[in-house]
Amino acid sequence: MPAIVLIGAQWGDEGKGKATDILAGQVQWVVRYQGGNNAGHTVVLPDGQDFALHLIPSGILTPGLRNVIGNGVVVDPGVLLDELSGLEARGVDTSNLMISADAHLIMPYHVAIDKVTERFLGKAKIGTTGRGIGPAYQDKVARVGVRVADVLDEKILRQKVEAALDLKNQMLVKVYNRRALDVDEVVDTVLQHGRRFAERIADTRLLLNKALENDETVLLEGSQGTLLDVDHGTYPFVTSSNPTAGGAAVGSGIGPNKITRVIGILKAYTTRVGSGPFPTELLDAMGEHLRKAGGEVGVTTGRPRRCGWFDAVIGRYAVRVNGITDFFLTKLDVLSGLENVPICVGYEVDGKRVDDMPMTQTDVHHALPVYEELPGWFEDLSACRTFDDLPANARAYVQRIEELTGAPVSAIGVGPGRDQTITRDV
After folding, report:
1. Does domain 3-91+204-423 have CATH number 3.90.170.10?
2. Which of 45, 51, 215, 278 is least surrounded by CB atoms within 10 angstroms?
3. Is 13 a catalytic residue?
4. Does the annotation mark 355 as catalytic?
């Protein structure tokens, strides 16, 4: 049986939580394979309950599913425990959540450095969430990180914290004029947190591969999106990990030959949070309309999202770098009521037409959208349950996205609810 990857095909916030929640009924495992609590998924259940998840896989809301925080994730222990407590207080069974022993921990000094560094950069800031994700990944790559398994070995944990603070306290005090962190306080806090999730720590690579051998299906859930990938995104305005489909194998310990389907989540328009280029961004009343109609506020940060028209250049790029087999198109209902709906079909860079992502950072920043206008529709889509239920112009819009991106649309979201989804055979 396959492993399925669910990947954001834009700058994140495409609606991956809803897609994971819908697919959860067809799989036995859901794995979060990268990122940290700098991203969030919103899931609305049939009974109207609204859940905002930041670190725990969306499959936690489906009884009986086994959920994994994979080795590619960076885990803030305090945030993890708060999220578990919040779910349990609302009656959600969290006993089926496991955490990879090899996932890295976000330490208090990571959060401190993230916040002061971003302030220090001023206008050149990247737009991070200030939650320590970048510094935690830096330590991971520098081979001085603290892993989840280290909470089971106080001696190793203390050695790592002492070594880290030798340097990081110098930075905090002498460069940023902040208070030094105490080794004992950091170690004690992490150990206290660790005792509360120690029974969840597992060799998740082994568990997932055994599951596949036993004909169980694994859903690999990415956070953020393709254009925020540290290798393939709009660098340097990216996250510190690999949300793209290739990162799913690395961040879970599942071999790439086990992945048989890659579902790209696309919003019917485009949004992004934080700094960086955004060719189709609307800085006018229409941008504000999309923001309000789509409820475009970051799940984790509360920051208003920047909004713009659908960008087919990005869609084609996402298909290419992820090997996307089909798309889940979300929030088509938000576009109802518009006389015309533009789609960006290419860019103009320094007077020249380009149809693919520009190669240099300067060209990406200078890219101007080339639009094709499609007729809009005024009907309410929220009750549509088949493709034929959609107005003709809405169907034409979906079909044009398929033509421009090169991948079929297998599902369409027409509202926030789990049941407000159209599925198609593609």
Report:
1. yes
2. 215
3. yes
4. no
